[in-house]
């Protein structure tokens, strides 16, 4: 019998709110593996020591959440090219020789959440409007580009950040002023909210949907609440919607596979267990 006990976890500061233990420990039980996934509260000045400790403690790796996703990159022996373009990692995998490899699975999670909702979804179906230009936007825009998006209208409250991303990523990303967010929805096939507006404790996103085609898919990176005011408004006028829970669940799958050797699925029991905590 294989007596290997595999451990992983998430480093963040604060980290108590993270839902990742629910997800990974569900899969550990489901696949009858010997292992555990824990919460690691790591203050920013301790990040280097904590990451080096992964190898010393024999952990399989860890996830990274706020505020460590960018700083952690400098401690890696190798960073996945996609994560380098995103400028952030959310997963570390300790290799057999102790080398630390960094990955970013947020874009994979986002694309998979769209496909779970609409199996025939295509990135090149028409113009895409992305609101926001922070960390989530970087992952979402790059993954949409790699998937063949032909036109991405990037709109952010601070125009300079949208312009900087458009300059960095090049065609097909074009920056628009925040004042153009309502009109820029004309002809769009996909609308994405990657701002924090509409999240629990934040005001709702200020965008009017009347220019948005009824055929457009509307997605929100936010998962607390599950249905943001944006998604409720889109659903009420007849648009298909995708919430941020699928992105969270799907980004966890490749990390679990790398640490535990099984590519897990998202089942109803897991979705129910998570939804209860939201
Ligand atoms: P971030 O880097 O801090 O970016 C925040 C974005 O929100 C910026 O574009 C910011 O615009 C915009 N914003 C803030 N206040 C605003 C306001 N009053 N009006 C308009 N825009 C405003 O955050 P992030 O990491 O990208 O996360 C963004 C959201 O995505 C969060 O709600 C987070 O929970 C969610 N998220 C979900 C997942 C998932 O797995 N589902 C993963 C990552 C993130 P400025 O540039 O003008 O400040």
Please specify the SSE layout and strand pairing:
Layout: E1 6-12, H1 20-30, E2 35-41, H2 47-57, E3 61-64, E4 78-79, H3 81-86, E5 91-94, E6 100-103, H4 106-117, E7 128-131, H5 135-146, E8 152-155, H6 159-169, E9 173-176, E10 190-193, E11 217-220, H7 229-237, E12 240-242, H8 245-260, H9 268-275
Parallel strand pairs: 1-2, 1-3, 4-6, 7-8, 7-10, 8-9, 10-11, 11-12
Antiparallel strand pairs: 3-5, 5-6
Helix pairs in contact: 1-8, 4-5, 4-8
NADP nicotinamide-adenine-dinucleotide phosphate binds at residues 106, 109, 132-137, 156-158, 161, 194-197, 199, 221-223, 244, 247-248, 251.
Would you identify the CATH H-level superfamily of the largest domain? Answer: NAD(P)-binding Rossmann-like Domain
Count of extended strands: 12
The CATH topology of the largest domain is given as Rossmann fold
CATH architecture tag of the largest domain = 3-Layer(aba) Sandwich
**Number of separate helices:** 9
Kindly report how far apart the N and C termini lie: 39 Å
Counted up, domains total: 2
Structural class by sheet pairing and helices:
alpha/beta
Q: How much helicity do the residues have?
A: 25-40%
CATH class of the largest domain: Alpha Beta
Order of H and E elements: EHEHEEHEEHEHEHEEEHEHH
With strands numbered from the N-terminus, the spatial order across the biggest sheet is 2-1-3-5-6-4
Low-confidence stretches: none
Largest sheet: 6 strands, mixed
How large is the share of residues in beta strands?
Answer: 15-25%
Q: What's the average pLDDT?
A: 97
- Bound compounds, please? NADP nicotinamide-adenine-dinucleotide phosphate
Radius of gyration: 19 Å
Shape, per Cα inertia axes: globular
């Amino acid at each position: 019998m294989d007596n290997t006990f595999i451990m992983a976890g998430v480093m963040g500061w604060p980290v108590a709110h993270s839902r990742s233990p629910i997800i990974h420990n569900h899969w550990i039980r489901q696949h009858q593996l010997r292992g555990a996934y824990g919460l690691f509260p790591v203050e920013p000045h301790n990040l280097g020591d904590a990451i080096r400790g992964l190898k010393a403690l024999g952990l399989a790796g860890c996830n990274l959440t706020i505020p460590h996703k960018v700083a952690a990159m400098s401690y890696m022996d190798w960073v996945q090219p996609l994560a380098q373009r995103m400028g952030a990692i959310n997963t570390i995998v300790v290799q057999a020789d102790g080398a630390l490899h960094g990955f970013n699975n947020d874009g994979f999670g986002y694309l998979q959440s769209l496909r779970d909702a609409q199996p025939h979804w295509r990135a090149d179906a028409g113009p895409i409007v992305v609101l926001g230009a922070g960390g989530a936007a970087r992952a979402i825009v790059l993954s949409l580009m790699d998937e063949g998006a032909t036109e991405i209208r990037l709109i952010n409250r601070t125009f300079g950040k949208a312009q900087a991303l458009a300059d960095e990523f090049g065609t097909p990303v074009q920056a628009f002023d925040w004042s153009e967010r309502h009109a820029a929805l004309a002809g769009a096939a996909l609308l994405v909210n990657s701002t924090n507006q509409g999240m629990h404790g934040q005001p709702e996103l200020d965008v009017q949907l009347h220019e948005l085609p009824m055929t457009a898919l509307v997605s929100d990176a936010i998962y607390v609440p599950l249905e943001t005011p944006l998604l409720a408004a889109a659903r009420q006028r007849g648009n298909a919607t995708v919430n941020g829970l699928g992105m969270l669940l799907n980004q966890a799958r490749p990390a679990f596979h790398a640490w535990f050797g099984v590519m897990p699925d998202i089942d109803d029991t897991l979705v129910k267990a998570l939804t209860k905590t939201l």
